[in-house]
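About this split. The held-out portion is used to measure sequence recovery: a designer receives only the structure tokens and must propose an amino acid at every position. Recovery is the fraction of positions where the proposal matches the reference. Here is one held-out target exactly as it appears in the evaluation file.
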């Protein structure tokens, strides 16, 4: 049986590579079509014409989509093995290889075992991609399609972002997640310190804030001439209308005020404020670190990704593969069209259930909030498709006629 297992496994891996290239290639082409108007902005320069413009555009999209493919693979990690398994089994049926194996007394479930084992092993690629590759290329993945046309293409404004750890609201005229020096920048920042009743206590002002990864805080600077800065910002205290004390201004160097207790907002939380999808780029270790912070921003999204990723996602990918194998694996070649239709229906329903769970994970029912069980809602929705479709996939595979 080792020869048979090796033959089926090698055939499945070949089809897996073909499916990866085809599906990821289609994803790239569709993304280019929908964002073509932004991509062509790279050639909006008078010195680029003819062959030079074509080569510049080709280099640009190659650099952009090379990194995006790692994220596309995450989205397609459950579909690629399904397509590969379908091609592998359909080819064996078409060339009557299954008939020969059945006549020799080999059960169809035994024929599917190499596909299932290799499919489980290939999920390690998904783990490596999500936990080690993507977190290290976040600046490249957060670029807009027209990032090369303007230095500030990825910049955005921050308006009244809450920093519960320090009791503050943050306003930033322009936030640069991918500044030229490789560090996130805040241009023209204004931070209002507030009390529990949202009354102002102080006001921090600075012309520039640069993220200091070593001390885990923002270094503040003020203008000191054209394109020159000097260290330090200003803090105005005693702004509360209930106090009769005069306003006092003092110089500060960092935010939070005490760099030894770095509990202020981080670049990751700013990106979560900008887009909830940014959490998909973080590793589970970084997500756990953010969840342990008091008043961490985007807690619901962090919990959603934490529970939907890892074992739950790998289990769901394996369930999709089992559903596919149980539908396509048939001893009757004339039933292949019906088998393919059943495969599409079962896999589609399973994916729809998983997608609905992710969409509703942020909407926690009121009775769970009152019972302090809100954190269990994303975990329940993450495992519900696994608990429902897992037994169904095993039952369908067991009912395959051999």
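Reference sequence for scoring:
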């Amino acid at each position: 049986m080792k020869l048979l297992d090796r033959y089926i496994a090698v055939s499945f891996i070949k089809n897996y590579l073909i499916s990866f290239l085809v599906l990821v290639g289609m994803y790239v082409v569709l993304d280019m079509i929908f964002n073509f108007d932004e991509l062509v902005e790279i050639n909006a320069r008078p010195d680029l014409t003819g062959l030079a413009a074509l080569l510049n555009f080709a280099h640009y999209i190659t650099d952009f989509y090379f990194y995006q493919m790692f994220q596309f693979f995450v989205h397609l990690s459950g579909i690629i093995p399904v397509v590969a398994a379908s091609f592998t089994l359909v080819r064996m049926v078409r060339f009557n290889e299954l008939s020969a194996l059945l006549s020799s007394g080999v059960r169809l479930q035994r024929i599917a075992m190499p596909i299932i084992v290799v499919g489980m092993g290939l999920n390690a690629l998904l783990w490596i991609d999500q936990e080690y590759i993507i977190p290290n290329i976040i600046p490249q993945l957060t670029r807009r399609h027209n990032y090369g046309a303007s230095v500030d293409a990825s910049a955005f404004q921050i308006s009244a972002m809450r920093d519960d750890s320090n009791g503050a609201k943050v306003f930033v005229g322009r936030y640069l997640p991918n500044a030229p020096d490789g560090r996130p920048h805040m241009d023209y920042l204004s931070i209002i310190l507030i009390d529990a009743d949202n009354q102002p206590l102080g006001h921090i002002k600075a012309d520039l804030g640069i993220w200091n990864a070593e001390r885990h805080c923002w270094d503040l600077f003020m203008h000191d001439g054209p394109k020159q800065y000097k260290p330090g910002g200003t803090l105005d205290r005693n702004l509360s209308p209930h106090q009769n004390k005069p306003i006092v201004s003092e110089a500060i160097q960092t935010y939070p005020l005490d760099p030894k207790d770095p509990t202020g907002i981080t670049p990751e939380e700013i990106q979560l404020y900008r887009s909830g999808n940014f959490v998909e780029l973080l590793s589970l270790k970084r997500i756990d670190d953010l969840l342990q912070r008091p008043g961490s921003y985007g807690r619901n999204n962090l919990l959603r990704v934490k529970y939907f990723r890892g074992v739950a996602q790998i289990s769901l990918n394996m369930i999709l593969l089992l559903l596919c194998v149980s539908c396509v694996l048939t001893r009757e070649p004339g039933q292949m069209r019906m088998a393919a239709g059943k495969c599409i229906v079962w896999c589609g329903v399973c994916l729809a259930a998983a997608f609905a769970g992710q969409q509703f994970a942020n909407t926690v029912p009121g009775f769970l909030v009152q019972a302090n069980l809100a954190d269990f809602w994303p975990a329940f929705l993450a495992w519900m498709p696994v608990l429902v479709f897992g037994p169904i996939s095993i039952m369908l595979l067991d009912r395959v006629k051999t």
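Annotator remark: The two ends are 17 Å apart (CA to CA).
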